[in-house]
Design brief:
439 residues, alpha/beta, Rossmann fold, 7-stranded mixed beta sheet, 15 helices, 17 strands, binds S-adenosylmethionine
């Protein structure tokens, strides 16, 4: 049902304050009214009438009333005295021009219909992320921002009591983002589930993304299938509140789960306890650049590192710099999630960046013919032409990996993809230990 934008609702809703429940004013003004003719028909006439008057019929799709039931209901209602209230779902009155006016109260409109009262379909936000009782929007268009608190109010439901809008993109070290409250209570401690485990999250202060459930599951399965023994452990270098560590612990896999954010570690510990995996998961609050150097050379609790999860896309590859001058003898498998801007040559891009980080940048730049001395390893560092012209060098480098598998996980923007690389280095191969500087 396409509802007409209603100027009275527009006026009220563009200046709406942050509300926790629908105010009497919204209930009174934000209703939907439509004028119809109600025709009394004998049951035997309904079928032929519907088929011969298709174009004039309004398909009334009010919640809880199917189309057929609505036709039937309206036919029955036309014979009843007016005004008439049908189980509070809608009210029918006569109008002066002899028609009937059906008015549907705010609470009986769907979220889509409530929003149609003030904006066109193109501006209605299609989805939001739900984290426990919190709904999280990324509102962008001027119309969405004009009606942001009304959008929030329409989202409040039995399961959602806080609605927020991201105001700036993620840019800080802890991968949190600024947001504003649109509706409901400012309560940002949420409880949610992922892959069958319960997580408590302080959404204001820690990183969490509910949409990554499937992606996390794929990575978890790969580690679980690699059959670690009891003398081996997984290092989750940027573990957040524990979406990898908790399921791994529940599969009796030992994990050292680290995060630089103190708040993340506070909630990581809560989640480890709640899911009863304390025996398997050790929580830690350090810089993984430092910690990685240590665990690559020294056993932790008499266990050797067997797998390393690097799940901070902007920096994941750079963490491999920790290898320099360590003389590591362990050969863990690295699960690296990172971004690429190379659609076809994504594998080559990742190889170049991993080799660059692992060995030091100078040699890579010389071999790929790039005049660049800076030590930053960004997604844009290697250009398509450079990768294409040096494809044989890249193939040769690929040969030095003990194992190398790169898969695209998803699109993250125009010309930007998330990839997951699984790599292992052969520590006996001199290639990984040679480093030639630029000059
Ligand atoms: C993209 S989030 C991923 C968190 C978690 N793996 C998840 O999927 O929910 C990256 C995490 O890395 C942490 N972080 C950033 N820099 C770090 C560092 N140098 N050492 C350890 N953790 C770091 C952030 O606090 C954040 O929790």
């Amino acid at each position: 049902m396409n509802i007409q934008v209603n100027p009275l609702c527009v006026k009220l809703c563009e200046s709406l304050p942050v509300l926790s429940s629908v105010s009497a004013e919204v209930k009174q003004i934000c209703t939907y009214s439509v004028k119809v003719n109600i025709i009394e028909l004998a049951p035997s006439e309904i079928g032929s009438f519907l088929s011969s008057h298709q174009s004039e019929l309004i398909k009334v799709q009010f919640p809880l009333l199917s189309n057929v039931y609505t036709y039937q209901a309206l036919t029955e209602l036309s014979t009843s005295p007016l005004p008439l209230q049908s189980q509070n779902k809608f009210v029918i009155t006569y109008t002066q021009d002899g028609q009937h006016q059906i008015t549907v109260p705010y609470v009986n409109l769907t979220r889509q219909q409530q929003l149609q009262l003030v904006m066109d379909n193109n501006n209605i936000p299609l989805s939001y992320e739900q984290i426990g009782h919190i709904a999280h929007y990324n509102l962008r268009t001027p119309v969405q921002l004009q009606f942001k608190n009304y959008i929030g109010l329409c989202t409040i439901s039995k399961t959602i009591s806080t609605v927020i809008n991201k105001t700036e993109s993620i840019s800080n070290t802890f991968r949190t983002f600024p947001f504003e409250l649109l509706a409901g209570a400012p309560n940002y401690i949420a409880t949610t589930t992922q892959n069958g485990y319960k997580f408590v999250i302080d959404f204001e202060n820690v990183y969490w993304n509910s949409r990554l459930e499937e992606e996390h599951k794929q990575l978890l399965n790969r580690i679980i299938e690699s059959n670690l023994n009891k003398n081996e452990f997984v290092f989750d270098a940027t573990g957040g509140v524990g979406p990898f560590a908790v399921p791994l612990g529940a599969n009796k896999i030992h994990v050292l789960c680290n995060d630089l954010n103190e708040k993340s570690v506070e909630f990581m510990k809560i989640n480890v306890n709640n899911n009863k995996v304390e025996q398997y998961v050790t929580c830690c609050n350090q810089d993984s650049f430092v910690l990685l150097k240590e665990i690559l050379t020294t056993p932790f609790n008499n266990k050797q590192v067997k797998a390393v999860i690097l799940n901070l896309p902007e920096l994941s590859v750079d963490f491999l710099k920790a290898y320099r001058n360590t003389g590591s003898v362990f050969e863990p498998k690295f699960y690296i999630e990172t971004f690429t801007r190379q659609k076809e040559l994504f594998k080559e891009d990742i190889i170049a960046r991993i080799v660059a980080a692992r060995k030091g940048f100078g040699i890579i730049h010389i071999d790929l013919g790039i005049e660049c001395e800076n030590e930053e390893c960004g997604c844009d560092q290697f250009k398509t032409e450079q990768l294409k012209t040096n494809i044989s060098t890249l193939r040769e480098w690929e040969g030095h990996f003990k194992c190398m598998d790169v898969r695209v996980v998803r699109d993250v923007g125009t010309f930007k993809w998330m990839v997951c690389a699984e790599v292992q280095f052969d520590e006996k191969d001199a290639f990984w230990h040679q480093r030639r500087d630029l000059k």
